[in-house]
Amino acid sequence: MTQPKQYIIYSTPTCGYCRLLKDWLTEQGVAFENVDVAMDPKRGQEMIQKTGQMGVPVSLITLADNREEIILGFDQRRIAALLGLPR
C-alpha cells in the first residue's frame, strides 16, 4: 500500500456513502482528514471550486509525487488502484 501524502474527504454526517468510504479507509489503514462541509461552509466552497459540484463524498488525494487526484463518490476500485490497496 502507498500512503498518500494527504487524503481529504469532504463529507456530511448524514451521507451513507461518506460513512462507508471512511470505514473502508480506516479498515485499510489509510489516514485521512475528514472535512464536514455541513459544519464548515468555507471548506464546502473549497470543494465546489475544486470539483464544480456539491455532492459528497469527495476525495482529494495528494500522492507522493504531489499529483492531486479528485474522486467523486465512493469509487472503491479507483481509490484502491491509486493507493495499491486490495479491492
From TrEMBL:
Q: Which GO terms describe its biological process?
A: cell redox homeostasis
Q: Which Pfam families match?
A: Glutaredoxin (PF00462)
Specify the Glutaredoxin domain's residue ranges: 8-58
InterPro entries assigned: Glutaredoxin, Grx-like_ET, Thioredoxin-like_sf
Molecular function GO labels? electron transfer activity
Q: What is this protein called?
A: Glutaredoxin domain-containing protein
